[in-house]
Amino acid sequence: MNIFDLTGTAAIITGGNGGLGLAMARGLAKAGADIAIWARNPRKNAAALEELGELGTGRVIALACEVTEEAAIARAMAATLDTLGRVDVCFANAGIPGAGQAIPEITPEGWDNTMGVNTRGAALVYKHVTRHMIARAQDGDAGGKLIVTSSGQSIMGVNRSSDYAASKAAVNGLTRAAAFELARYQITANALLFGFYETDITARADPRFGEWMAKRIPLRRPGDHEGLEGLAVFFASTHSNYITGQCLPVDGGLSIS
Question: CATH for 10-250?
Answer without folding.
Answer: 3.40.50.720
